TrEMBL record:
ATP binds at residues 528-532, 547-556. Residues 324-626 form the YjeF C-terminal domain. This is ATP-dependent (S)-NAD(P)H-hydrate dehydratase. GO terms for molecular function: ATP binding; ATP-dependent NAD(P)H-hydrate dehydratase activity. It comes from Electrophorus voltai. One of its GO terms (biological process) is nicotinamide nucleotide metabolic process. Residues 118-143 have a biased composition (Acidic residues). Belongs to the NnrD/CARKD family.
Amino acid sequence: MLVNPTRGFHWSDAETRALLNIWGEHDVQTALDGNFRNSHVYRDVAARLGDMGYDRTPDQCRVRVKSLKRQYYQAKKASKRNGQYHKTFKFYEEMERILSSRSAATLESQDADGVAVEGDETMDGTEEDGDSIDQPQDSDMDGAGECSNADYPVKVEYPSYPIPVTVGSSNVPVKQSGIQNTSMASPSAGKTRRYKKRFTNLSLEKLMEKFLEQSLEAEEGFYRLEEQRLRAEDVRRETEHTRELHMLQMLGQMLAGLATPAPSPTPQPARNSQMTPSAASFFGTHSRQASQAEYANHGQQRAAPVIERSFTLGRAASGNMDNVLPLVKNTIPPLTSKKHKGQDGRIGVIGGCQEYTGAPYFAAISALKVGADLSHVFCTKDAASVIKSYSPELIVHPVLDSPNAVEEMEKWLPRLHSLVVGPGLGREDVLLKNAKAIIEKSKSRGIPVVIDADGLWLVAKEPSVIQGYQKGILTPNVMEFRRLYEAMVSNVSRIPVRAHHESLDSNDPRGCAQQLSIAMGNVTLLLKGEEDIITDGNMVLTCNQEGSGRRCGGQGDLLSGALGIFSHWAFSSSAEATKGMNPALLAAFGAASLTRQCNRQAFHKHGRSTITSDMIQEICIAFKKLFES
């Protein structure tokens, strides 16, 4: 328990006025102004009071002056609203006389510091060894500074301790102020001290969340950079591989030129040194019509001699034919700024029904990716909106099942360069009938026609729809080939097919393909399998470009779409560019090579997960590697 000897003593009016007279003297005010060490001043004031017969300590004098100043400023501030308020303070005139004599600069600086207004008068500076300037007035003293309990000369108080008050998220010790009990409360007495605003720190959860977000962003950036690095590595590896293959090919050509060729054996004549009718037609001794007539006279069909052409990127091809791939390159039109839209190819796809919407999309988008300018899809009304949603690049016509479907599609034939019939066509009689009519219209205009999938079902039922049309190309798989062979050759036993997914495993699959082509009137045939066999009845090409073991649905649609644009380029090329070779063979060979290369590249990236969409994404790189390198 602490005893404060400066409080609780009664000051009479005479004693107070004596204090004010001494405190208001010029030398005392001069000593107090701007002096923060003022204990010696109040010791002098107490000594002068002692000379006048009043025994007071310096601290009692200082506290009494502070109390009078506080009451004066409260009365002065209140008198601005009520002119009679200052009459309640009996020493107002004495305080007014003393304080008004001070310089205006001193008073302004005091008001700016908020001393008088807030009741914390520090006009005399900061006292040393004294109480705080905001020490509250005693509760037992009235407005005139007189003690109501004169029987108790000394008041015992407990010291004030700082009480922790939560400000924001931090605990700041704030000293609790006392309650002032004055007769006339100042308007500013109820104001609380304003503390400086502090911004709270982020919570641990927020910090962890922010840290995780930054970690994810950094991880995604790392994956992007790693993916770019892997792509650059693949491009570098492929470039080195292509360069090595080119060097090996040049070396092989040099060695072949140095070697002495062995004389080829003389072909043994068949049947008493006479060629078969098909062989005679191939080597030029008889015309094609004569050979077919002799086939009819003999009552049997014999396979014509086969010139086998094997092709693998970077490996020398067998046989004495020129390389086929450069001829395919010759048919590809160059890209120039002088061309207009549609000049490099406008392709039409006949197919697409309610059950099958992906096949016509794959065929049409593949044609665009290979280099066509426009792709049209003629489908049923139910499939149109679905196919449109796949890509905005396609022009979709929902007319295939309409009553006037043939007339609607015939209007577009003059604008098309080639036609792909069959992807997603379905086997409804109405759709097959309309497709047949469109094929007939296209034949009359000389438009190349590629038939695949359900279009081959139509050909097996009605072979005359395409038979003998030299710009027609059929792309059957093993089962579709078996169906066509049964319809045209009627010798199914010669086609050894063990299962639907297996390729032809025969000593003479090329001969079977050539027989079917001849029976179809020398229509170009592309038999898909482990090796793609391409024949027009006179010549057989084998494309064994490296692919993969993955056979996903839609791969044949990619082939038919690419073949559609290749056929337009090939038939539009000059005889000098094709070296006199059948343009349909070149188109089929180019499309087969491109499809196999896309399959290989996609499988290298995706493995067993490879789908047709992955292969379509590889068309650009595969095309550059095969035809632009």
